[in-house]
Amino acid sequence: MRMVSADDTRNSLDFPSLVRSLETAFAGDAEVPVRHHHSIPRPGEQDATLLLMPAWDTHGPTGVKIVRVTPGNADRGLPAIMGVYLLMNEVTGEPEALIDGQMLTVRRTAAASALGAHFLARADSHRLLMVGTGALAPHLIEAHASVRPIREVKIWGRNPEKADKLASSLDSNTLKVEAVEELQAGVQWADVISCATLSREPLVRGAWMQEGQHLDLVGAFKPDMRESDDEAVQRCRIFVDTHAGALKEGGDIVQPMEAGAITKSDVVADLFELSRGKVQGRRDDSELTLFKSVGTALEDYAAAQQVLQRLS
Q1: Of all residues in the chain, what percent carry a pLDDT higher than 70?
Q2: What separation in angstroms does the CA of 290 have from each of 9, 28, 105, 209, 232?
Q3: Is the distance from CB of 155 to CB of 133 less than 8 angstroms?
Q4: Which of 79, 87, 134, 237 maximizes the CB count within 10 A of its CB?
């Protein structure tokens, strides 16, 4: 069995190729059961979450990701996401690769947002606001820049020092990156707004949003978490990574539905329907679009196969 390091995983998952791999996977017919989702109490901090995410294909390998999300790791200077991905031979079931789960997760998660933006963000989008300074943030910036001509990035975080540090590490001759102190100003400035936080209270307000923007919501992966308010969701044409996951687990969808601010029918389509061409994404340059992801084992499965193919 091959042990695949974080560096080898990242090097195998360049975003242009990975976004295409995800689009192919969503247009395909792999089997993806609803993920197992378990809360683990952590004394003195937020609960941890254990995720078990299997997927397989009749003519392909079998895979499963085992991940724990530990919000308290932020105070320890560690990533919130830890885990591994096991890929097994399609015929014998023999383990073929054990892939770094943290790197696989951040790359595929960012690529899913980029695939959403490919369908939903304006073609001329060049200003990106990154809300959040965690492990996902630099990957989301890179991913969005792979599908849209992003030239300017502003980063907002609850800790301004972290935002400054991240901005300085990413600033370059081709990508101007700087921290922003006022979230409202950042939202009003951006073409694309990408959020990756563990917030339990709305951050992006619908009253701040401007014509033609695309809102990418990544962080609120449980029903009691959210990154946008009801007005933001109401003003946008809504899309999700999967209906089954986002309508059950994504607080940015679940909470406004429970409050009666939106209904199930307001969710236009998921990545399966977009990738298969069944539903049109952005219709014009003026509409507001929203993409909510909570993650699906299909994304890990497609990414893990790309890693194995690149290293073979």
Answers
A1: 100
A2: 29, 24, 21, 11, 9
A3: yes
A4: 87
Cα torsion 268, 138, 13, 226: sign: negative
* CA-wise closest residue to 130 among 72, 87, 221, 191: 191
The token duo for 98 is: 């054990």
**Other beta carbons within 10 Å of 261:** 14
pTM equals 0.93
Pairwise CA distance, residues 113 & 144, whole Å: 7
pLDDT digits (tens, 9 = 90+) for 145-172: 999 999 999 999 999 999 999 999 999 9
Structural domains in the chain?
A: 2-104+298-311 (3.30.1780.10), 122-295 (3.40.50.720)
Rounded to 5 degrees, what are φ and ψ at 142? -60, -40
Residues in CB range of 244: below 8 A, 6 or more apart: 34
Residue 45 to residue 199: CA distance in whole angstroms = 14
Q: Is 80 exposed, middle or buried (0-12, 13-18, 19+ CB in 10 A)?
A: buried
Cα separation, 17 vs 7, whole angstroms:
17
What's the burial of 255, exposed, middle or buried (CB within 10 Å: 0-12/13-18/19+)?
Answer: buried
Distance, in Å, from the CA atom of 22 to the CA atom of 161, rounded to the nearest integer, reads 34
| Closest C-alpha to 144, from 156, 134, 154, 158 | 154
Q: How many angstroms separate the CA atoms of 233 and 93, rounded?
A: 44
Residue closest to 182 by CA, chosen among 162, 157, 199: 157
Residue 69: per-residue pLDDT: 87
Helices (H), the chain: 6-12, 15-27, 101-120, 137-147, 160-170, 183-189, 230-235, 243-249, 251-259, 271-275, 297-311
Instruction: Say if residue 205 is exposed, middle or buried (CB neighbours under 10 Å; 0-12, 13-18, 19+).
Output: middle
